[in-house]
Input
Amino acid sequence: MSVRFVKSSVASFGAAPADESGALRLIELCGRTAYKSEDKITEDSAKKFVLMLKSHGHLSVLEHSNAVLKIEKDPAVPAGAQGAPISFERMLEALGQRVSYHRLYRLGSGEGFLMAGNFRAWLDTLDSLKPYGRLRDLLLASLGGFFPAIFPVGDGAVRETFRDCRASLVGAEEQLELLKSGLSLDLPVFVFKFVCDRGITHEVVRHRVLSFTQESTRYVNYGNRGMILILPEELYGCFDEQTGELSTGRYPLADAWQKRAETLFDWYGQDLDRGLRPEIARDILPNLLKSELFISGRWSGWKHFITLRDSSQAHPRIRFIAQEVRRYFEGFGLTC
Ligand SMILES: Cc1cc2nc3c(=O)[nH]c(=O)nc-3n(C[C@H](O)[C@H](O)[C@H](O)COP(=O)(O)OP(=O)(O)OC[C@H]3O[C@@H](n4cnc5c(N)ncnc54)[C@H](O)[C@@H]3O)c2cc1C
Output
């Protein structure tokens, strides 16, 4: 197996889907990117894969998602007909410090509100809300209605004590409109895939308010797949875009890079041959190793990323990525 070079790239996956089947498919794609098992994706593999992640507690992959609820009082039901009102204030109080994992906005001057969270945030929040029976029941029943695989309600587990409230799902288009409106509601989760080197992924994952799933050098065996490195800037002039190969034999610099990359790959292969697992043999892999990662976050998080990384202080390859992300958002009028 050989050594190849590719350029860094950024692909946008838009706003996280608001329907369960789209959400499960996206989470599966993110998760399988870690293990490079995308070839195992089939028409009906997503639900099983995501439930496996959930049961193993690999909940960070479930962060590549978004569920936005609109919770309103039902005007048809007279005030006081039910128990304590489920209001914006009540929800804030119940969430306590968990509020930072959500976006919560009051609707007008009434008691209704919008509440957003990724699946992982909602799962943890439902857990923390156990002392708040009626409030938790409403959220679980609503989420379970829209995303039954992720939030199974269970027979009779949810009491029907909230007939004075109604919860609806806010779709991805509506989320975008609200973000772009003067109200700037930070509701949608935007998903990107970066292909970059391990040195840059290490910088990307420092942005803690975003969510990440990254190709695993512990599980992936590059001895079988070949080793791909990200093209360093000084080699741009020695790279054939058509073939995707370094123009060796014409440029001494390209020859030198190809040789040093092959030497490292050879050492990696020798370690595998003497029985080391990929997670141990990886010690010799270079910073330039190509890595694929999915990153999800709301506009506020991406704005912060762009501000810090599209800067003359930043490394040129993360700056390139930040500029691509900036361009995506500018495409529908979001600037920073
Ligand atoms: C040019 C440049 C050079 C750098 N050089 C280095 C370096 O030499 N060494 C190094 O270690 N790092 C370096 N970094 C990384 C940098 O220190 C940050 O880790 C990275 O930029 C992420 O920024 P952040 O923490 O603001 O973002 P995020 O982690 O996304 O946080 C966003 C915001 O959330 C809040 N927040 C998140 N977590 C916490 C918390 N635990 N406590 C309080 N507030 C929180 C803060 O308001 C923060 O601004 C560099 C970054 C840049 C852009």
